[in-house]
Amino acid sequence: MILTITTTHQPATDLSYLLHKHPDRVQSFDLSFGTARVFYPEVSTERTTVALLLEIDPVGMVRGRGAEQNSLFDRYVNDRPYVASSFMSVAISQVFGTALGGRCKDRPELVTTPIPLSVRIDVLPVRAGEGFLHRVFEPLGYTVEATCHSLDDQFPEWGDSPYYSVTVMGTKTISELLTHLYVLIPVFDNEKHYFVGEDELDKLLIKGTGWLAQHPEKEQITRRFLKHQSSLYREALIRLVEEERLIDIEELPEPQQQEESLERPVSLNDQRHGAVLAALRASGARKVLDLGCGEGKLLRELLQDRQFEQIVGLDVSVRSLEVASSRLKLDRLPPRQAERLQLIHGSLIYRDRRLEGFDAAAVVEVIEHLDQPRLAALERVLFEFAKPATVVMTTPNREYNVMWESLPAGSFRHADHRFEWTRHEFQEWANRVSGQYGYAVRFIPVGPEDETVGPPTQMGVFERV
């Protein structure tokens, strides 16, 4: 089976930088089920095409399958070596993993640049019909062309086969394109070659962040990707529905400006960041996460402190990450500085193994943007799975809102806040979470503290015991 990617972006040879594959040589990659080869059929500044040729080892494919196939006959007579399937998806992740992850060391500015891309897949099994093919790709902004192959040209009366040569065209970043292919190609594959369990559920939700929750065919995509396993499918749908409102946050004009405008007279944002930095420094952390990093204000301060050797900023908003990259001037940082900092796109309500192994995490003015189901998901993602040694978390103190004359009674500080807690409510939640997941928590006031209503911001420092 073969997949080609073509661009007419100028210069088109930028494609080789994005994919980290040299256009002047054929490269081979040994996979558990065969060999993947990457080569360039055409290379010019006007038009460049890269090909991923996947050669399946049919004997190796059978070994170790046990009773997974229906019969001994099915094990040896099938279309698996010839059609794009879960094998192709795995090959994309292993051969183009750097590009899939949105990284490009030599030309980082290309990563976030949408370019015209055309993908041809020979062949794709579309047993649900050509209409399903269009319904899967077109809502993502692609144009689809499909040519159905007959079962046998010598016997036209046999009719058409379910196999199509498919061309998908759109203006996307290379990471977006590869992510869509990684998720959607297995959707047409009825027989995954790997075990489908919770790891595959996590992969689907991570790769689907920002687009799958709003896709009109999300139910079919989810059901087919997870091989019709009802328990996984139900959990995925619940979490996708929860994400829909989270995506809407990106549509709000200039997030955080409303809240910061209200708090500016007391420079609360600066005091908040100062308190968080002090707690992170005191923890002795070297590897730090900024979860919900927004436009990178805290990241800039972390980068200026040499104590922090590895800094990762995560946000659900692609727009905010683009602003952060621009403000931090990532493309102009000295190499040693640039190596310390990474921006990643993701959601705090899905388990993400990229967040594991860190000393500390900052969660600054984030939790109040989550409704209760998402907050419960964040608890597990942060304290059960990522489980950094220290978590520094801030959230507004609702009691203090009466101190701002410009804030109507009963209103929240930001239009997107789902709740704002009193000091008692935050402490009750934090004590429950810390006890459940093996942490101890202490509370620190941030900002000018009033005798009656307390400080404007409350901070909890969670330390794993």
TrEMBL record:
Its EC number is 2.1.1.386. Pfam families: Hen1_L, Methyltransf_12. GO terms for molecular function: metal ion binding; RNA binding; small RNA 2'-O-methyltransferase activity. Residues 1-240 form the Hen1 N-terminal domain. Its cofactor is Mg(2+). Keywords: Magnesium, Metal-binding, Methyltransferase, RNA-binding, RNA-mediated gene silencing, S-adenosyl-L-methionine, Transferase. One of its GO terms (biological process) is regulatory ncRNA-mediated gene silencing. It catalyses: small RNA 3'-end nucleotide + S-adenosyl-L-methionine = small RNA 3'-end 2'-O-methylnucleotide + S-adenosyl-L-homocysteine + H(+). Coiled coil: none annotated. SUPFAM superfamilies: S-adenosyl-L-methionine-dependent methyltransferases. Residues 289-381 form the Methyltransferase type domain. Belongs to the methyltransferase superfamily. HEN1 family. This is Small RNA 2'-O-methyltransferase.
